[in-house]
Amino acid sequence: MPQVLVVARNFMDMVAALPASKLDMLYDSAFICEAVLRSLPPLAKKYALQMLYVLAPVAAAAMEEWVLDEYASKHRVAIDKLLQLRVFVEVRDRRKEVSYKMNQKFQGNMQKYLVDGGSLPREPIPLSVTGRLPASADLEAYALDQWECFLLQLINSSQVEKGTSFSSSMMKTFQRGLLSSRDGEAPKLTENGFQFLLMETNAQLWYIMREYISSAEERGVDPTELISFLLELSFHKLGAAYSLNTLTDVERIAIRDLAELGLVKLQQGRKDSWFIPTQLATNLSASLSDSSSSKEGFVVLETNFRMYAYSTSKLHCEILRLFSRVEYQLPNLIVGAITKESIYGAFENGITAEQIISFLRQNAHPRVVDKIPVVPENVTDQIRLWETDRNRVEMIPSHLYEDFPSKEWFEQCCDHARDHGYLLWEDSKRMRLIVRGEFHPEMREFLRRQR
Amino acid sequence: MSSAHSKLYSDDVSLVVIVVDTNPFFWAAAALPFADFFANLVHFVNSLLLLNHLNRVVVIAAGVSSCSYIFDSSDASAAGGVGVTATFDKASRKVEEFIAQDARATAGNGSVVSGNAASLLSGALSLALCYIQRIFRSGTRHPQPRILCLQGSPDGPEQYVAVMNSIFSAQRSMVPIDSCIVGTQDSAFLQQASYITGGVYLKPQELNGLFQYLAVVFATDLHSRTFLRLPKTLGVDFRASCFCHKKTIDMGYVCSVCLSIFCKNQKKCSTCGSEFSRVMPDLNSMPDQSK
């Protein structure tokens, strides 16, 4: 059964899909160049650095020499990525030989970065204006709170006391693909929705951001502007205040939405108002590459399948409920067990064993993180066994043919189906055969020709 | 170490400790002025920090009689706000201070024969390894560490034991030592260090393009190194220094108990105290005693 996974990390694909002129416009900003560079696979980053001071085009054949022969595929992936994002530009000379050159704007910006070092996109407001700013711990708590609140609303709009102020149409765009709602029924999480919940915060964030940007056009906002603003936002300093007056109109609307998601905290002073980027925002460009955040986990799983989750969050409880039986809940502790029924329930919803295991691993309590393996082996094995148990029977749509007039004819049909690799079963005594469903039209044609 | 390595980032996040030779005796006569060299270095540090926001870079200066940390990117980002240029200004001021201090220490020491003084490579390597161990022991996940030595001055045979110990400890903690020679002669110590720890040893032909060498070869993270064609060492000088006179020797005596190396026949090992009861035949007739 092919699994449709929610792909969250392809934000850069979205950037790559922009028309060339818009992409070049984006590269006017050094921050975007920086973010794009950091999102590249390691080998591509390395190539970009290598080409930074090379002005003349370098032949593609010469570049292939950089990498060992057995890893040529890695080289192609890296070059493709660089070309897609227009970091490298293809140049063909008179003899039709391909060579690559670095995008001039990109090159210029990066060279400047190396000389001057990174700078801030805009100056923070001095403390004398803003007064006391929230401490980083408070800010982090605020961000996570806001984000969880949003997620809860996303999956279960009835359970939230203080909802976010997203318009219902906006919420609908986010829910598109995650929830399926039939008329007259309560909306139900889809397979993708369950997988979404088990993802890391950063991956979830990008998924939402992607939806947000792709719906921008419906709202009459240029997606390019949003992308550039989001990438720029991640280079602001965590916990510093920035004046709202420095933003354009589009950005000002966007920042209110982002505040709802917990990416920034808005504050109102006597004269000005300002925004304070939280960790979620500053991690935005970081999480584009694979190095994930180091969030503290909360789940302890024992070898007897009992699970203790040290969490006060409702969302965590909801997520655990997806694949375990929650037995009781104390103020700061959720006690549950992994049972066959609960795991089967998860499989029904389209969650895979690997997703459950990786979730348990990623969210392991710091006390058990140092153990090897983090999740007891017998539990992971059992979860996998339960999954394979379900897949013992494979279903293939097929057709049964019987009542052949002669043995010869039957044999011919069998051979024909076997030659094409569609024969599933034959019973020569009673002259019956079963053929894969997709082969049926051709089989019928074959029978007609025989007649 | 196995538990520590399971906490490594799987990606290209790196911790690069750069050991910079600040030996005034070398730089006074070098083809590349120190200021240009330092500008190249700043470029290189910047480019490492550009590649991944989790990358960390530490610069250690190795002088003639002392060494010290001069730059740590995690301090720089913690201080924040002040801007990167300011941080690098601070780093270059720190280098100047360090060089002045080191010169005073050398003058006070008096033991150094001017014109042919080695830098304190052993001390700098130890500092680098200590820093890496500290990172290994803190936090939940840490970057993949490597050391880069930018050396110009000749090896100091008297540091042989200390340098070899650092090399083996780097090998044990799986920290590759890269070496880039900015001087005129090859360094036997660093050839061995890179060979044993699986790092890259390179002596650039054209020092004016130092940054390009650094960016192409030494900016490569450990993850990408498995795919790329990197310069290979042509030959490694495996010669050892004797423990008794600290001279580099081609052939010598080795203690059968602790493997200490001596250039002359001894009655008793000065390191472990074992007595050599049997009188050794003359060295010249026993060529297989060489190490």
Automatic annotation (TrEMBL), chain A:
Listed Pfam families: Tfb2, Tfb2_C
Domain Transcription factor Tfb2 C-terminal: 381-448
One term of GO molecular function: ATPase activator activity
Superkingdom field: Eukaryota
Gene Ontology biological process terms from the UniProt entry: nucleotide-excision repair
Keywords: DNA damage, DNA repair, Nucleus, Transcription, Transcription regulation
Annotated compartments: Nucleus
One GO location term (cellular component): transcription factor TFIIH holo complex
Listed InterPro entries: Tfb2_C, TFIIH_p52/Tfb2
Function: Component of the general transcription and DNA repair factor IIH (TFIIH) core complex which is involved in general and transcription-coupled nucleotide excision repair (NER) of damaged DNA.
Family classification: Belongs to the TFB2 family.
Name this protein carries in UniProt: RNA polymerase II transcription factor B subunit 2
Organism in which the protein naturally occurs: Setaria viridis
Automatic annotation (TrEMBL), chain B:
An example Gene Ontology biological process: nucleotide-excision repair
Any single Gene Ontology cellular-component annotation: transcription factor TFIIH core complex
Example of a GO MF term: zinc ion binding
Major subcellular site: nucleus
Record carries keyword Ubl conjugation: no
Keywords in alphabetical order: DNA damage, DNA repair, Metal-binding, Nucleus, Transcription, Transcription regulation, Zinc, Zinc-finger
Pfam family, one: Tfb4
Record has Cytoplasm as a keyword: no
Superkingdom field: Eukaryota
Localization terms from the record: Nucleus
Assembly with partners or alone: Component of the 7-subunit TFIIH core complex composed of XPB, XPD, TFB1/GTF2H1, GTF2H2/P44, TFB4/GTF2H3, TFB2/GTF2H4 and TFB5/GTF2H5, which is active in NER. The core complex associates with the 3-subunit CDK-activating kinase (CAK) module composed of CYCH1/cyclin H1, CDKD and MAT1/At4g30820 to form the 10-subunit holoenzyme (holo-TFIIH) active in transcription.
Function: Component of the general transcription and DNA repair factor IIH (TFIIH) core complex, which is involved in general and transcription-coupled nucleotide excision repair (NER) of damaged DNA and, when complexed to CAK, in RNA transcription by RNA polymerase II. In NER, TFIIH acts by opening DNA around the lesion to allow the excision of the damaged oligonucleotide and its replacement by a new DNA fragment. In transcription, TFIIH has an essential role in transcription initiation.
Family classification: Belongs to the TFB4 family.
Protein name: General transcription and DNA repair factor IIH subunit TFB4
Species the sequence originates in: Setaria viridis (Green bristlegrass)
